[in-house]
Amino acid sequence: MATSVKMPQLGESITEGTIAKWLKKPGDQVKKYEGLVEIITDKVNAEVPAPLTGVLKEIKVQEGATVTVGTEIAVIEESVTATASAQKSQPPPPADLVAVPSPVSEEGQGGAETRTRLSPAVRALIEEHRISDAELSRIEGSGIGGRISKKDVEAYVAKRTQPAAANGERQQAATAPATAPAQTPGTTVPLSPMRRAIAANMLKSKQTIPHAWTVAEVDMTNVVRFRQKVKESFKQREGIDLTFVPIIVKAVVEGLKAVPVLNASWTDQGVLLHKDINVGVAVSVDDGLIVPVIHQADRMSIAGLAKVVDDLAKRARAGKLGIPDVQGGTFTVNNPGTFGTILSYSIIAPPQAGILAMDAIVKRPVVVDGDAIAIRSMMNLCLSFDHRVLDGVSAARFLQGVRRWLEGFSEQIPLY
Questions:
Q1: Domain 2-89 adopts which CATH fold?
Q2: What is the pLDDT of residues 215-264, one digit of tens each?
Q3: For the whole model, what pTM was predicted?
Q4: Which residues are designated catalytic?
Q5: Domain spans in the chain, listed from the N-terminal domain onward
Q6: Computed from CA positions of residues 31, 34, 40, 46, in that sequence, does the dihedral angle turn out positive or negative?
Q7: What's the CATH code, domain 209-407?
């Protein structure tokens, strides 16, 4: 009996996905829950398992193609004998689909494991430039555990082609007229599936959501002093750094409690107010940005938020996020300030109603206590919001609530 395999929905706001790599070819035996295909969206790279045991009869959608959720992508001919055998030997199904990059090829598995766990975008780049296994072994990985990133491959390709380019330029100079102007051709960088998906999602956001934004200046001096005082003992106790992100997330949670209309989504039937506060935290990766979600952030302490943020960021950069890790977000916090920005405007992630950008904390002179001037640690917070869901007054009330909570921070606020 032939069974259709369809493009799965890998998140509530995701409507399409890109086939990055087929892990099986037509005629291959497949086992239930065995990796069948790698799919890329703007949020996660996922290895999708086979829904049943049998033979891959036909591939309907080729690598690199982007199709909508529900589209038939393959056909598996079910094997009754194989199914019965698999049921005896196969372990229980995984709790979720985990985005685990697979090796480039069996021939490439001779090196360290961390060097063969390549993302689909990196593998596509290696295939495009026909980099052999021998060449691959000479590329130094700058990622976690020596993992090779897209930038590492691009740097290797640029270095490899320099001699040829130089010879070509010398030959052209010898034959060109003396008066000919110098020509510097540009370079087209192919779009990775993740970059293409991010572009499509951001375009959809700007086309469908009437964005508005507002900024608040926040005096972070009390927060900076608190973190400086407890960061060493916190790291010794918990094994992780106490960054500013979990403290900002805690302030956001308190702000959303006070202005719940921002913890919402627009629908044709009305504004959907979410019961849980699930905060997405933007994490930069090789090919773009991933936004894993802190579920029920309103039930966590600052220390609890710090642990979850650290865990999600590490797994995001290692390509080990599961589908549930990127689902269910109701509001997002972005942290461009880590790169030194002082004023950032972020695009809303549908179907959420808002996103908050936290910029760099900078020491500068400000007026305090009437006419006195003091050096304070200042930061800008920029809130982008869906103007269909709420008006400027509600957005300003939320932002000022976050500002007051941060400026009033003291040691009386529990860390645990």
A1: OB fold (Dihydrolipoamide Acetyltransferase, E2P) (2.40.50)
A2: 999 999 999 999 999 999 999 999 999 999 999 999 999 999 999 999 99
A3: 0.65
A4: 387, 391
A5: 2-89, 101-174+188-193, 209-407
A6: positive
A7: 3.30.559.10
